[in-house]
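Quick illustration for those who missed Monday's session on complexes.
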Amino acid sequence: MRINAAMNLSSTLWRILIVLLCFSIKLCSSQMNLLGFLTVKPAKLFLIGSNLTVYCHTNKCEKGFKLSLEVNGETVTSSKEINCTAIFNLINFRTPSSSVICMLKGPDSSKIVDGGDLKGGLPPDKPENIICETTRSSDNIICSWEKGQKTHVNTTYNISLNRENGTRIELYQIQDDKQRGRPNPLTISRAVIEENIKYQLIITAYNPFGESQSDPFIFCLKDLVIPETPRIVNIEFGNNSQAAVLRWETSDSSEHLRSDVWLRTDKASSWTVAEGADLNESQIRVSGLRPLTDYEFQMRTYMPHNNTPRSNCSKWSASVRGRSPGKGPSQQLHVWRTFVSPGSNVTVLWKPPSPEDYSGVVQQYKMFLGNEQKQEVLYGPASSSVPVPAEIKAISISAITSYGTSPQADVPLKHSGGFGPVLRKLAPADSSSAVLASWTWTDDKHWSTSGGEPLHYVVQWTTVPGAEMKWQRVSKDQNNTLITGLRAGVRYNVSLYAVTSRGVSAPSSRLVYSKEQKPVSGPNLSVLVHEARRVHIQWDELPVDQQRGFITHYTVYLQTLDSSNTKLSVTVSGSGPRILWLDCPEGTLAVQLSASTSAGEGQPGKRIFSQPESPAVVLVIGIVFVITLFLAIVANLMCWSCVRKRIKQKCISWGPAWLDENLPKLGNSNAIRLLKVMNSLLPLFV
Ligand SMILES: *[C@@H]1O[C@H](CO)[C@@H](O)[C@H](O)[C@H]1NC(C)=O
Ligand SMILES: *[C@@H]1O[C@H](CO)[C@@H](O)[C@H](O)[C@H]1NC(C)=O
Ligand SMILES: *[C@@H]1O[C@H](CO)[C@@H](O)[C@H](O)[C@H]1NC(C)=O
Ligand SMILES: *[C@@H]1O[C@H](CO)[C@@H](O)[C@H](O)[C@H]1NC(C)=O
Ligand SMILES: *[C@@H]1O[C@H](CO)[C@@H](O)[C@H](O)[C@H]1NC(C)=O
Ligand SMILES: *[C@@H]1O[C@H](CO)[C@@H](O)[C@H](O)[C@H]1NC(C)=O
Ligand SMILES: *[C@@H]1O[C@H](CO)[C@@H](O)[C@H](O)[C@H]1NC(C)=O
Ligand SMILES: *[C@@H]1O[C@H](CO)[C@@H](O)[C@H](O)[C@H]1NC(C)=O
Ligand SMILES: *[C@@H]1O[C@H](CO)[C@@H](O)[C@H](O)[C@H]1NC(C)=O
Ligand SMILES: *[C@@H]1O[C@H](CO)[C@@H](O)[C@H](O)[C@H]1NC(C)=O
Ligand SMILES: *[C@@H]1O[C@H](CO)[C@@H](O)[C@H](O)[C@H]1NC(C)=O
Ligand SMILES: *[C@@H]1O[C@H](CO)[C@@H](O)[C@H](O)[C@H]1NC(C)=O
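Prediction with 2-acetamido-2-deoxy-beta-D-glucopyranose bound:
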C-alpha cells in the first residue's frame, strides 16, 4: 500500500497517518506487497549500548528517491547506498524499546519500504539480600531477593534448594516480567524442610544476555521463624486528638513482644514510622497526630534484642483506617482589662485562641461574672472587648469552639501592690512599624518582689493623643518583646505590667515613635513686646499629632522688611521655655518659627509682622496711665468721709508744696497708702 503525503506535513502528523494506515508493521508486511525489506545486525534483540547496523533494501531503485530511516520518529541518514540497499549505523544504541521505519523519499512523496521493532536489554545482576521467612503456624517459607538493575527483558530465576553438602532437593523457577525492585517471592513448602538441618539456597538469574548466580544462602528452619502477623482490632483517638491507642491481637504465643506502628495520611504518600509507646502486651499509644485527619495505620511486632532491636520483626499487619476527631482549645485565652480611672467600669479584653491550639471554629465566648453565683454571658465569635460594671469583682472567660471549650482564664482586676519591672529605652526595630521593648527588674530577685505567683507580663500601647489601645501578653520568662503594627510619626505610650496571682503591678511607661517624622507645621507665635532693638516672643506647644516626633529644637527666623532685608535665625532647645527675648535689627520685622525632630525640620509656622513701639507712643500711654490713676485716687479719697474734708482743705492751702509736707499720722489707712504710691510715681512724670 502506498501512502502519498505532502513532504511538508509535520512528522507527528506523518506518524499518525502511518499508525492509522498500518496498525502494525507486521500487518503491513504480511498483507501488503512491500517495496523491500529491512534487516538488523547483529539482531533486533540487542545488548543495550551495542552498535547496530540497519540495512534497508528496495526492490526497485527509482530515480529521485532516497532511502531514509526513522528511529522513534527521528530521521537517520544512511552512511552508504549500494545496489538499492542503504546502510544505517546506530552507534552505542541505548533505547530499550524502539521502532524503525525505512522509507523511500521522493521530492513530492514518501513510501514506506519496511519497518520493525528493536528491543534492547541487559544481563541480570547477581541476586542479593535473600530473605526467607516463616511463622510458627505457617505451612510455607517465603523467600525474596533483590534483582539489581532493570534488565528491560524477561528474566528467569532458577532457585536451587540444596542440602548443605550441595545435593539438590528441589529446583524452583520464577519468571520475572515486572519492572519492580523485587521479583515475585518464592514459596517453599515447609514439608520439604526438616528442622535442625542446614540448607542452602542458590539463585541463578538468566535472560538472553547472560546469567548471574547468587551467593549461597545457608539457613536452618528455626532461623527463619518471625512473629505472627498481628491484627489491629481497635483504634481510639484521645488526648485531644493528638494521640490514638491501637489495640492489637496476635496468635503468637511468645511473650515480651514489642510493637511498631507506621502511618500515612493518604494512599499516595509513603509510610512514616509513628512516635509510639507500648502500653502493655496488647496496646500501643501513637502520639504526634493532628486533628481532623484521615489516618491509615499498620503495625508489626518484634522480639526485642539487646543490640539489634528490629531484627526479628513480623510482617506488617493489614491496614486499619481512622479519622482523628477535632480538638478543642487546651490553653487559656489571653485576657486583659482597662479602666478609664480607678474604680470605674472595666473594659475586659481578650484574644482569640491560637489557631494551632484548636480545630474547627470559635462559636462563642463565655464570660463568667462574680465569685460564687456565677453569672454567665455569651458573646459572638467576633467580640474581643466588653464593658463590665465596676461592682463585679471576679471575671473569667473561655472560648467555645466546635470541638470543646478552653479552660477559664481569670481577668486580673486587682492591683498586686508589688513592684514590677522597669521598661528600658524602647528601640525602634529595623522596620518603621515595630519597636523592641525590653525591661529589667530593679534588683536581681525579679518576680520575688512582685508579690504572688508570677504569671506573665502584659505590654500595652496607646496612641497619644487618642484612645487606640493594643496589648500583648508576654511569657514570664521573657525580658523583651517586639511591638509591631505601629505607624510612623505617631506617638505611642507603651506600658509594661507584671501580672501575678495577686494582681497587676503598677505600670512602667515610656513614650516612643516607631519612626520619627518632620513636624507637620510650625507652632503659633506671638510677639509680646517689640522694642527698638529687642523683641519678646512666645509660642504655643505644637499639638502632639502635629509633632510627629520628639521636638529637639525650635528655630526662630527674623527678617527686616526695609531695604537691608536682614535675615537672622536663632535656635532654641525643644525642652526649654517657649518664651524668649531676642536682639533684632531696627524696623518692622517678619517673625516665623519652625520645630524640628530627629527626622528634620518641619514647615515654618505663620509669618508674624511686628513694628517696634515708638517712644512717643510710650509717653502717651504713660500720661494716660497717670491721669487715670490720679482720678482713681481722687475718687477713692472723696468716698472716704472722715478725712475727705481735711485733705481737700490741705490741698487748697498747701498748693503745689503739698508734696514736701508730711501727712498727718493716719495709721495704716487707704489714703496714706495711695498717697505714698503717688509720691513715688509723680517724679517720673514731672
Ligand atoms: C561502537 O562503535 C564505536 C565507534 O565506531 C566504537 O568506538 C565502539 O567500540 C563500538 N562499540 C562496540 C560495542 O563495538
Ligand atoms: C551490485 O550489483 C552489481 C551488478 O548487478 C554487482 O556486480 C555487484 O557485485 C553488486 N554489489 C554488491 C555490493 O552487491
Ligand atoms: C515476557 O513475559 C510476558 C509475561 O509473562 C510475556 O507475555 C512475554 O511474551 C514475554 N516476553 C518474552 C520476550 O518472552
Ligand atoms: C534453569 O532450569 C532449567 C530446568 O528447569 C534448565 O533447563 C536451565 O538450563 C536452567 N538454567 C540455568 C541458567 O541454570
Ligand atoms: C549429602 O547428604 C545427604 C544426606 O545427608 C546424602 O544422602 C548425600 O549422599 C550426600 N551427598 C554428597 C555428595 O555427599
Ligand atoms: C524470632 O522470634 C521468634 C518468636 O516470635 C523466635 O522463635 C525466633 O527464634 C526469632 N528468630 C530469630 C532469628 O531471632
Ligand atoms: C497529651 O498530648 C500532649 C502533647 O502531645 C502531651 O504533652 C501530654 O503528655 C499528653 N497527655 C497524655 C495524658 O498522654
Ligand atoms: C492493657 O491495658 C489496658 C488498660 O490500660 C487493659 O484494659 C488491658 O487489659 C491490658 N492488657 C493486658 C494484656 O495487660
Ligand atoms: C458603668 O456601667 C453601668 C452599667 O453597665 C452604667 O450604668 C454606668 O453608667 C457605667 N459607668 C460609667 C462611669 O461608665
Ligand atoms: C534578658 O535575658 C537574657 C537572658 O535570659 C539576658 O542575657 C539579658 O541581659 C536580659 N536583658 C535584660 C534587658 O535584662
Ligand atoms: C502612659 O500610660 C500610663 C498607663 O496607662 C499612664 O499612667 C501615663 O500617664 C501615660 N502617659 C502619657 C504621657 O500619656
Ligand atoms: C494656630 O492657631 C490657630 C487659630 O487659633 C489654630 O487654628 C491652629 O490650629 C493653631 N496652630 C497650631 C500649630 O497650634
